[in-house]
Write a structure and sequence with these properties.
The complex is a heterodimer.
Chain A: H1 6-14, E1 32-38, H2 42-55, E2 60-63, E3 79-80, H3 87-101, H4 103-107, E4 118-122, H5 125-141, E5 146-148, H6 150-156, E6 171-175, E7 179-180, H7 183-196, E8 200-202, E9 207-213, E10 216-222, E11 227-234, H8 240-247, E12 253-265, E13 273-276, E14 281-285, E15 290-297, H9 309-322, E16 331-342, E17 348-351, E18 357-361, H10 371-384, H11 397-400
Parallel strand pairs in A: 1-2, 1-11, 2-8, 4-13, 11-18
Antiparallel strand pairs in A: 3-7, 4-6, 5-6, 9-10, 10-11, 12-15, 12-16, 13-14, 14-15, 17-18
Helix pairs in contact in A: 2-7, 2-10, 3-10
Chain B: E1 3-5, E2 12-14, E3 19-23, H1 35-43, E4 51-57, E5 65-71, E6 77-82, H2 90-99, E7 104-105, E8 108-109
Antiparallel strand pairs in B: 1-2, 3-4, 4-5, 5-6, 7-8
Classes of the chains: A alpha/beta, B alpha+beta.
Chain lengths: 414, 113
């Protein structure tokens, strides 16, 4: 792999950019791999990357039915934060956030991590109490957050209306080291690094069946023929239930569409991420100038990648109250992604009833921010059979009543 | 936009008029059941790609609960029926069979198979 650098840009400028190589190879699948990862999204690619980097396992195939990073990795609102209440969630999300800080250098790929700060607005008395509690919990967990007054919120976000008609802004939970990153670049950066380690990223190859022998995973049937493996990781977000059924077990999971939209590009007006959880809207401004807006999930199960229109209406209505200037913006695009939601809204990173088959799913509405931490922990679990970060996220927690009880996915009232 | 016809008042209600009540025809387990049954009842929801049966409430209308048969891939609605039903009526099963031959959902399936 040729490294990207200022020197490389200068060198290529002098030879009409003829020297750039493809970022990753597109090989035909081999007959056998040590590890198969199903799903070349952020989480799948990150898992493969840390399997190679931390454990030297490079005979790995990452199988993707569409194109890499084309699922929820390319559909989210790119927010990164770790201000969670419960210890297990704070641990894995903070691990992820800290890995984002050095990801560009680590991958030699600019993921445009921008630690611009994230505010979660408190707009009811309950939220004030809740976020103060979270701030205290974060202090104990070593996650740097702070409870701030409405005046300080206004200082940070001048376009905000503190005295909205329904929900006045009563303060906020401020995480200064939270922010955003370029979502596609995260997938592309990991893919390039994985390919460089000799891993095969096999796109447009759908898994149609999972083969087991004596209770252990033996391989997968795909649209490009059968592939054998010693270990398998299922990391397919919204389609996790579908894939687990192929392997013969069920998941405590439901899939729904979650929507986002972006406005026309405007001049810089807000240099932080603002989340308004009571009214279910969150907003940040991309480097292109578009206001990136996220909304709520659909009420009923579906796999449409579209979402219900009235959720968009609710989200925009709420944002117009809190940010009156939004009412003058034209919206450019709207899209949906299929998120998989568990009973306690926390992910599953777990061994499964099938031997040597591991699952990483259920990130619900908050998967992007956790990509590096999730990959790091999943790689550890797959390579060594145990990871302290994933201990609490097992499938058995529902049986044992050990819920990770917060609406972890978005930290919102679902 | 999802539109379901309320089997009680006959109104073709769109989504904002309705409240989703999750998976239909659940058998409820409580005290006296074993751990596995209770766990499955609480957490193991059906999550099919395709035919799905759900409970809905005509919340901003007559207020009554009813059942709906729907496709989660296309949002197509196969029909709605009363809440007081232990299984989907034959007429709705036939409609689904006509459009999705070979369908199955929990213990219900295409009877022609």
């Amino acid at each position: 792999m040729k490294r990207y650098s200022a020197f490389a840009v200068a060198r290529e400028a002098l030879r009409y950019h003829t020297g750039w190589e493809r970022a990753w190879r597109s090989p035909e699948p081999k007959r056998h791999y040590d590890v198969i990862i199903v799903g070349a999204g952020g989480h799948g690619l990150a898992t493969a990357y840390y399997l190679g980097k931390n454990y030297g396992i490079t005979n790995v195939a990452i199988i993707e039915k569409g194109w890499l990073g084309g699922g929820n990795t390319g559909r989210n609102t790119t927010i990164i934060r770790s201000n969670y209440l419960q210890d297990p969630s704070a641990a894995i999300y903070e691990k992820a956030r800290s890995l984002y800080e050095t990801m560009s250098q680590d991958l030699n790929y600019n993921v445009m991590f921008s630690p611009r700060g994230v505010i979660m607005l408190a707009q009811t008395e309950h939220e004030i109490r809740g976020y103060k509690r979270t701030a205290h919990a974060n202090a104990l967990q070593g996650v740097q957050t702070e409870w701030i007054s409405p005046e300080r919120v206004k200082e940070i976000v001048p376009i905000i209306n503190l005295h909205g008609p329904r929900y006045p802004v009563l303060g906020g939970l401020w995480q200064e080291r939270g922010g955003t990153a370029r979502h596609d670049a995260v997938a592309w950066g990991y893919a390039r690094a994985c390919s460089d380690m000799g891993m095969d990223i096999i796109q447009q190859c759908e898994v149609t069946g999972v083969r087991t022998e004596g209770g252990r995973v033996a391989g997968v049937e795909t649209s490009k023929g059968p592939i054998d493996c010693d270990k398998m990781g299922m990391i397919v977000a919204g389609n996790a239930s579908h894939l687990s059924e192929m392997a013969g077990f069920r998941l405590p999971m439901e899939s729904v569409a979650l929507q986002a939209l972006v406005s026309e590009p405007i001049k810089p007006c807000m240099d932080v991420v603002v989340m308004a959880n009571t009214v279910h809207g969150y907003m940040s401004q991309s480097d292109k100038g578009e206001m990136v807006i996220g909304g709520g999930t659909d009420a009923a199960n579906n796999y449409t990648q579209r979402g219900s229109f009235h959720h968009i209406e609710e989200t925009v209505r709420a944002l117009v109250e809190t940010f009156p200037m939004v009412s003058r913006l034209k919206m450019l695009r709207q899209w949906g992604g299929i998120v998989d939601v568990t009973g306690d809204r926390s992910p599953l990173i777990s061994k499964t009833p099938v031997g040597n088959c591991f699952i990483n799913c259920g990130w619900g509405t908050g998967g992007f921010k956790s990509i590096p931490g999730s990959g790091w922990a999943m790689a550890e679990l797959m390579a060594t059979g145990h990871s302290p970060l994933t201990e609490e996220f097992t499938m058995n927690r529902f049986k044992e009543g050990k819920f990770i009880d917060e609406s972890v996915a978005a930290g919102v009232a679902h | 936009m999802l539109i379901l016809e309320c089997p009680y008042c006959g109104v073709k209600a769109e989504e904002t008029e309705l409240a989703s009540g999750g998976e239909a025809h659940l058998k409820r387990f409580g005290p006296g059941s074993d751990d596995e049954q209770f766990h499955d009842y609480l957490f193991m929801r059906e999550n099919p790609k395709g035919v799905h049966f759900e409970r809905w409430r005509h919340a901003n209308g007559c207020g009554k609960w009813f059942h709906a048969a729907r496709c989660t891939m296309t949002m197509e609605v196969f029909g709605t029926y009363a809440a007081q039903a232990y299984e989907p009526p034959q007429e709705i099963k036939d409609k689904i069979t006509a459009k999705r031959p070979g369908w199955s959902w929990r213990e219900f399936s295409d009877a022609s198979e």
